[in-house]
Amino acid sequence: MRTFSIGRFSMMTGMVAMATAVATANASDGVGSGNATARPGEQEQHKAGSQGKDVYGIVNLSGGTVGYFADINARGQAVFEYEGLDGLLKVGYFDGRRVIDISPPNSGSVRFGGLNEQGEVALSASIIEPAAPRGGPLRPFRWSASRGLVPLPSLSSEGSTFVTAINNRSEIIGHSALSAERGTNRAVRWTATNRLIPLPAPAGIDQSFASDINDHNVTVGSGDRASGEPNLLAWDAAGRMMHLGAFGKRFAFASYNNNRGEVAGMLDVHTRNRSAFLWSPGKGAVRIGAGTVAHQLNELGEVVGRRDGDNANGTPRAFLFSRARGLVDLHPRGLDASEADDLNDHGVVVGVGYRASGERIAYRWTRGGAADLNTRLLDPPAGLVLTSGLAVSNNGDIIADSNAGVLLLRANGGGTDAPVLGPIRHADPRLDQPLGITLSFRDRNVGDTHTATVDWGDGSGPQAVPVREYRGKGEVRASHTYKASGDYNIIVRVRDSTGRATQLFERITVLELGAPGVQGQGAVSSGADARRQLQARAPAERLRHRPTQMFR
After folding, report:
1. pLDDT tens across 355-368, in order?
2. pTM, two decimal places
3. Per-position b or e across 408-441, b if 16+ CB within 10 A of its CB
4. What is the Cα–Cα distance from 149 to 103, expressed in whole angstroms?
5. CA end-to-end span of the chain, whole Å?
6. Cα(362)–Cα(373) distance, rounded to whole angstroms?
7. Burial of 302 (0-12, 13-18, 19+ CB in 10 A)
8. What single-letter DSSP state applies at residue 376?
9. Domains in the chain and their CATH numbers?
10. Tens of pLDDT along 83-109?
């Protein structure tokens, strides 16, 4: 769940109201009979250029390739997935000053599950062992700065266990497989003392998944019938199950819930009639609109996501939905496609826009309109491009993906005393041909001086390289000739005169002259790798985490 809370809500009252609404919806064979309906899209006014303090300071988080999922709490602590130097998926934790790799030792792939307001993290990881040299089944973990990494129990030592959320009471939820090969999944919850609680499923449900948990320990998710059709399930704080059915539809699953007892999810996801929905206590469910996919729900009952178009490519457009405003079209003018990925409790939305060329641009939406986040950066290094807004906190800070890795954007120009690095820029790497790289950096402490090293990844080790700088603005230039084809990690490290340092890396492929190559412009991803990672996940988690082209 999101790590922000508002008000209190009686969960037993909410569960009874849920049951009443389900009975009403099923009886009418529809969704939310008599409830509010989504209004046609409203284009919000576009506003370009930064004004006043509407600027963001930049902090480098991951040192390398594209980020996948991230979250940030109101204390400025952030967690994010990224690819490490070894090409494996890692989880990084930012405590407000520095980044810590919290991936378990000897881990293969690591998956981020959730972050709460106390800075606790839920994650799962495959561990490399002699019997599993590429990593075994995923295992669940809890991490905190005070206790470090704590392994959690699973239903089986053979099957994988995913964690999907953690609330502010330190309760974690997810699902655990009963065996390794096509093992049946069961929704589970771990208490604050790490006790494993299997969540019951009704008769006729073959497997179950838990998607989100609020601060009252109410969990929502889904259960699959033998035919594969998911139904909504919910469990109260005592673990008592409520079978919510499918609101009169064939398919239904819950992705998010908030502290007001509201639930957002999807209906008929495998059909042309797919739609996101919002369920509210005492009001039942409302179908948000044809082709809509829910990406997040905040504490005010607002849902954001994308609405796939009616054209052949299903071009998505970002939207925001609430009962008060209906369906609001957030799509910025001049873009080919867009999607909204997160929002806070003040209505600030972040996501991505796509130009006709396929280039990704990080976007932010407010009541004042849409803004390319690249136009809101305070003194960015040359060549830096924000490609996606991943998460936004209640204090307005944003986690963004970029061609220089994962970044923290601090609202109102807040920044860091460490050097801020732009992308590693270079031409196509070729065997036996000099490869020149350029990296721009900034330092808000204009009196600092800087040194830099480059490790070319071929065993030669870090080498000091010259730096050109003047009053907080600088550039690193270096050149190297590779004598063997293959994959290499280029690592650039810039250190200031007070000892603060920032590191960036990029994996390149060196080819013989004439072989096809890719133009290097830093850590840029086409999005295909992210989709491949998502396709490997369990069904409920994959649906919750929304690959852009999943339903096409």
Report:
1. 999 999 999 999 98
2. 0.85
3. bbbbebbbbebbbbbbbbbebbbbeeebebebbb
4. 9
5. 27
6. 6
7. buried
8. G
9. 11-418+529-544 (2.130.10.120), 424-520 (2.60.40.10)
10. 888 888 999 999 999 999 999 999 989
